[in-house]
Amino acid sequence: MNPDVIHSLDSLRILSLDMISYAKSGHPGICLGAAPILYSIYANHLVANPKDPKWPNRDRFVMSPGHASALLYAILFMAGYDVSIDDLVKFRKFGSKTPGHPEYGTTPGVEVTTGVSGEGFANAVGMAMAEKYIQGQLDSILAKQQIIRYNVYCMVSDADLMEGVAHEAAALAGQLALENLIVIYDSNDVTSDGPLKYCDSTDYIKQFINYGWEVDFVQEGNDIREIDRAIERAKMNRKPTFIEIKTTIGRGSVNEGKNVVHGKPLSKEDMANIRKKYNINTNTLEITESAVKVLRKSISYRVDAIYRNWQANFENLKANSKEERLLNLLNFIEYGKLETTFDSNNFKIQNDYSEEIRESNSKIMNIISDRTKFFLGGSADLATSCHTALYKEVPYDKKSRIGRNIHFGVREHAMAAVMNGMALSKLRVYGSTFLSFADNMKPSIRLAAMMNLPLTYIFTHDSIAIGEDGPTHQPIEQLTMLRTIPNLTVLRPCDINEVIGCWDFIINNEAPVALSLSKSEAHILAGTDGSKVKQGAYVVKKENIKIDAVFVSTGIDFTKTYLITEELRAKGFDIRLVSMPSMELFFKQPIEYQREVIPPGTLVITIEAGSPDSWYKIASPGCAFGIDKFGSSGPKEEVEKQLEFDYETLLNKALDRLTNKTETLV
Length: 666
Prior knowledge:
By secondary structure, the protein is an alpha/beta fold. It is 41% helix and 13% strand. The N and C termini lie far apart (70 Å).
C-alpha cells in the first residue's frame, strides 16, 4: 500500500487508542482490528460531504457495534467533520460531542443511536428501505433522476450477529432485494467473555446466502486494497451484500487476539510498544498533518464534483419545476416536512356514531394517507387484525418500491428497529401489532424515544376483552411499561372523537407515540372532544354542585366508567368524569390546568384494565382500579369477573370508596 495511506491508517488506530487511554475507559481491541474497514469506507467509497453532514443524497454509514465509538469519532475528525481534537480529548466526558456510544444529534456524521447490539443492523435496513421508497417516488416523476440515489453501509460485529433482531432484519432485506445495502462483518472470532467458538459456530456466509444476499469474504482484514475490491463488487450487486472480513482484535497489542483487549484501556507499556510497531511518533492525542491530509484529499477528490453537481441540479429543479407533486418531494427532501395539515376541529361526528376503535383509527389513517405520500407503514403480520392497511396502496416489495403497505412479517423487534432507520430519513412511519407484543419492540422504541423520532406504534387488542385468546394475548403490564419510557407519548382514545384528536397530535408533532386501541365497539360519548386530546386530560362531564369524586379513565374502559358514573349520579353522588387519553401530555400542562381538571383534595378514582402502577400518582389511596394479575382464556364476561373488572364489581368498589372517603395523593 501507499506509505502515506499506511501512515494515515495507523495514525487513525493510535488516535482512537489515545482517546481511550486519556478517558481511562473504552474498547481498544476493535479500534486496532477494524480500523482498515472504516478507513476503506471513508477514504474510498462513502459519498458524503463532511462540511454538509445532512446532505440528503449522502451515503449513510451505521456503526452497529457502538463500543467502537472512539474509532468512529477519530475518523470523523480526520475526514473533516465538525469534530475537533478538543472533542476527542473530551471522549466520554459529560456534555461532550464524543459520548461513550454514538448518539444521533450529538456528533456530526453519526447517523443513528445504535445502542444495543443488532439494532444498527436493522436500522441500516430501514435506511435502505427509505432510500428506495423516496427514490421510487422521484423516479415516477423524473426518469433516471439523480436527486436520491445512495448506498447504506453498516459495520457489524459478532455481537450484532448473535442478536435475533439482526437476523429478522436480514431476512426482510433479502426478501426486498435491497441492493443499496452493504453490511461489513468485523469477524475477529473473539467475544467479551472469550473465544467465539464457545458460544457460536454459525457459518454466516451460508446463512446470508439463504437470506437472499450476495456474500463476499476477505481473508486479510488489514489489507485495504482487498477490502476496497470487495466493496466495489458489492456496489455492482442487485441484492444486499454481506462481506465477512477476518480481522485480529487488538492487532499489535501484547494481548492481540484475546478477549482481555476488548473492553479496557491498554497499559502504558503496551501503548508505547504499539506506537513503535506502527511507527507513530506523535504525543498523546496528536496527529500529523499529513495523516489527516491524505484522507481528506481522497474524500475531496471523489466527492466534491458530485456534491456541486447535485446542488446545481437540485436548485435548478426547484426553480424551474411547475409540477406540484415534484415540488412537494423536493421540499420534503430538503426540509423533511409533510405537505399536509390535520386539524381535529374539521371533523364533525354524528352523536349516535358507533364502531370498533381500531376501525375508527383505520379510517383516519387512510384519510391521512390520501393527503401525503410520506406516510407509510405496516404490521408484524397483523394488518388484517389491527386494521392498519392503507386501502388504496400496494405492498412495498422488490417490484414496487413506492408501495406503502409494508409486510414486516412476524418480526416485531425488527419492525420497530427498521422503523427507526426509515424515520431517520424523515418519513412518517407507523408499525402495528397487538399491545401484548409491545415487549418485543421495547429496545427499539426506547432508542426511538432517545432520538425523538416521529414514529407511531399502533397497538390494538389493548384489553382483557379479547377473552378467548387467553393470558398470553391479554395485556396487563404493557401500558405501564410504555408509560415508563421517557419521551414516549402514550395515547389511549375512548371513541372516534379522541382517535381524531390523537392523530391531530401525531401529525402536528415530531415525536414518538404509542397509540393503544381496542378491538371492541365504542359508542361516541357525550362530551368527548378530539381537540382536547393534546391536553392529555379534560372534563367530559362536570359535577352539578360539589364534587364527591373525580373518576378518571381511558380507552374502551371509559365507556364502562361513564356508565358507572351515571348510576352513581342516580344514587345521589355528584361526580366529575375525566377522560385521560395521555398521562404524559396531562403532566406537561401547567399545574393550574392540572388542578382545574383534578382539583386537589378531591377523591380520585381511576379505572383502567391493566396494571394500576402508573395510576398511583393520580388516584387516591386504594382507588386505582386496575388488574395486577394475568388473565384466563374464556368469554369476555367471565374473564372480567375473574379479574374483578366487571361492571358490578367496579360499581361496588366505587360505592365503598365514596362511602369511606380517603384523601387524594394529587
